[in-house]
Amino acid sequence: MLDKILGGLFGVAIGDALGATTEFMSQKEIEAEHGIVKDIIGGGCWDVQPGETTDDTAMTIAVAKGIITNFEDPIEDIGRQFLLWKNTNPIDIGITIRVVFKHFEGNWFEAAKRAHDILDGRSAGNGSLMRCLPVALAYYEIYKMEQISVAQSKMTHFDDLASEACIIYNRIAHRLLRNDDLKTSILAEIKNTRYEKISSLKPDCPADGFVVNSMKWALYWLLNYVSFEEVVIGATNIGGDSDTIAAIAGGLKGLEVGYNNLPNHYKNKILDKEQLADLANQLFEIRERETNA
Ligand SMILES: [Mg+2]
């Protein structure tokens, strides 16, 4: 179980660190500049260090810390962690979350609704999906797991499309933690949803920050590629919102294969590796405690 939890968190961070090199680039631009990006080399639009991660990992860490602080009712603590992160002047904050921060006056859900209105109803970004995995890692009980998955989404992303994607994603993660097979888990959870038609054909939508498109691309890589490397390299080299899509896909794939099976040359590069390992241990302890309660 600990190996899976570690694999999930490192899967997010590795996808983020790899994809940071190609974020906002087109496939053609990536080919011209890099050929194919297979290693964590840094650079990109944020000029990151090799192994440096971005908002995807930072907000995943924030969600994990909030849950660790207050397992029963983590939303306020998750919010406190978001604000601590914001105060570090991060290199990248997604549009929806930036507007929410600007209008936050003590109630996250009200700020999310205001942001939704200010953005003319476009609050279905992928920013709550990219950070939601710690909820599935900590909460064994599926009803509670779904409830917190939705709440951590709604506190910044008013649109139901965002919370719907978080539920499907974390239900897949929940199955992986029971040792179910990844493809079987995905196919079971996307049945009768808008994601049902994901096939061996590349999704007919841009690999951008709209949560439905990001989810379609992440599921496409997960359903059609076998190894962890293939999944995160695939997502990285399409460009667009590549760091987030690689993080979303990398989280589930890392959970499936486990930390010990993640490539060393990726794991060792992650600058935040001690913090991620510490958080994985704490989430594991919480899960064990709750499972045995
Ligand atoms: Mg990012």
Automatic annotation (TrEMBL):
<keyword id="KW-0378">Hydrolase</keyword>
<feature type="binding site">
    <location>
        <position position="55"/>
    </location>
    <ligand>
        <name>Mg(2+)</name>
    </ligand>
</feature>
<feature type="binding site">
    <location>
        <position position="56"/>
    </location>
    <ligand>
        <name>Mg(2+)</name>
    </ligand>
</feature>
<dbReference type="Pfam" id="PF03747">
    <property type="entry name" value="ADP_ribosyl_GH"/>
</dbReference>
<keyword id="KW-0460">Magnesium</keyword>
<keyword id="KW-0479">Metal-binding</keyword>
<dbReference type="GO" id="GO:0016787">
    <property type="term" value="F:hydrolase activity"/>
</dbReference>
<dbReference type="InterPro" id="IPR050792">
    <property type="entry name" value="ADP-ribosylglycohydrolase"/>
</dbReference>
<feature type="binding site">
    <location>
        <position position="244"/>
    </location>
    <ligand>
        <name>Mg(2+)</name>
    </ligand>
</feature>
<feature type="binding site">
    <location>
        <position position="241"/>
    </location>
    <ligand>
        <name>Mg(2+)</name>
    </ligand>
</feature>
<dbReference type="GO" id="GO:0046872">
    <property type="term" value="F:metal ion binding"/>
</dbReference>
<feature type="binding site">
    <location>
        <position position="54"/>
    </location>
    <ligand>
        <name>Mg(2+)</name>
    </ligand>
</feature>
<dbReference type="InterPro" id="IPR036705">
    <property type="entry name" value="Ribosyl_crysJ1_sf"/>
</dbReference>
<protein>
    <submittedName>
        <fullName>ADP-ribosyl-[dinitrogen reductase] hydrolase</fullName>
    </submittedName>
</protein>
<dbReference type="InterPro" id="IPR005502">
    <property type="entry name" value="Ribosyl_crysJ1"/>
</dbReference>
<feature type="binding site">
    <location>
        <position position="243"/>
    </location>
    <ligand>
        <name>Mg(2+)</name>
    </ligand>
</feature>
<comment type="similarity">
    <text>Belongs to the ADP-ribosylglycohydrolase family.</text>
</comment>
